[in-house]
Design a protein that fits this description.
single chain, 314 residues, mainly alpha, DNA polymerase, domain 1, hpI Integrase, Chain A, 3-stranded antiparallel β-sheet, two-stranded antiparallel sheet, 5 strands
Length: 314
């Protein structure tokens, strides 16, 4: 059975599942299940077989689209990147199923993982944002008043550019890093109320996208540029940061504490992405059809799927 880059996704998934199940026929699997538990790495439930195969097919589709080979050559690092991308658009239960299917394949078929090793658990961003709410400009200003300048500028950047906390580590002026090749809506970043300067950030799955900062905010950011970039590890991931600003897990924690102190509650720094989405929707709604507005905001947030933007507008 074909295993190469050019095999159909369905064929790749079926090939993996056949080996994962010990190459038993459906009848043989039923008989074996009645007699004894299937050995480690073999799958007993017909429903699980179906779900795993579907998860592996979707993964194979992604690998082919991005010219990263096939299931048989998938590495743990590639799997982690793939799951992080899926986490921006799928529920936690779907992410868990995808991870379990890929992990079983790597442990017992392709042997990219030792049987005792596991893939990193990835949290669904979709479920996180469903529980979040935006902050009003007045609320953001109140929070900023309780922050140091180093944290305050990070809060403003997240609000004005819709950044995730860890993306603050990756800010670079436009031209220094090339954005990932993606089809872009022609009205992306149109109708912004102030003059802006373009930067790039690296988001989930390594996707590099452009963002816009108001010019005055960009000037403040540049005044905090480091003479020598710093190498930082945040939540087990290595970053090289070029600015003396707060970012990552420590920034998220500090933001929540400031929000709790002033507002009595916190929606987390992720709520600032909600604020950005809602502000941009209002800015574009009088100029573009709703479908175009959702697509533009989605691309600006780094999702590239308009239906995800709907969640931010609740």
């Amino acid at each position: 059975m074909a295993r190469g880059h050019f095999a159909k996704s369905e064929t790749q998934a079926a090939s993996v599942m056949k080996e994962l199940q010990g190459q038993l026929t459906p009848y043989e699997r039923q008989q074996k299940a009645l007699q004894e538990k299937i050995n480690a790495g073999k799958i007993e439930s017909v429903g699980t077989v179906r779900n795993y195969e579907q998860s592996l097919k979707i993964c194979a589709d992604y690998l082919k689209e991005h010219k990263q080979g096939g299931l048989w050559s998938l590495t743990p690092d590639q799997a982690k990147t793939y799951l992080e991308i899926r986490a921006s658009e799928c529920s936690q239960s779907t992410i868990n199923m995808d991870r379990q299917a890929i992990q079983a394949m790597m442990q017992h078929v392709t042997h990219q993982l030792d049987p005792k090793e596991s893939l990193t658990i990835v949290k669904s961003e979709l479920e996180t944002i469903e529980k979040s709410r935006s902050y009003t400009p007045e609320q953001v200003n109140r929070i900023i008043e309780r922050q140091t300048e180093r944290h305050a500028i990070s809060t403003e950047i997240c609000q004005k550019a819709g950044l995730r906390a860890h993306e603050l580590f990756t800010l670079r002026p436009s031209g220094e890093v090339q954005p990932s090749p993606r089809e872009i809506h022609p009205d992306k970043f149109s109708h912004m109320p102030k003059q802006t300067k373009c930067y790039t950030v690296t988001g989930k799955g390594g996707l590099i996208r452009e963002v816009q900062l108001p010019s005055q905010l960009a000037e403040r950011l540049e005044s905090r540029k480091l003479d020598t970039p710093l190498h930082i590890t945040d939540r087990g991931i290595n970053y090289t940061t070029h600015y003396n600003i707060a970012a990552g897990h420590k920034f998220s924690d500090a933001f929540s504490k400031a929000s709790n102190r002033d507002l009595g509650y916190s929606n987390g720094a992720h709520g600032l992405r909600h604020s950005y989405a809602q502000d941009r929707y209002e800015q574009l709604a009088n100029h573009l059809p709703r479908e175009s507005v959702l697509l533009c905001v989605s691309q600006e947030l780094g999702h590239f799927r308009p239906e995800i933007t709907e969640v931010y507008l609740r």
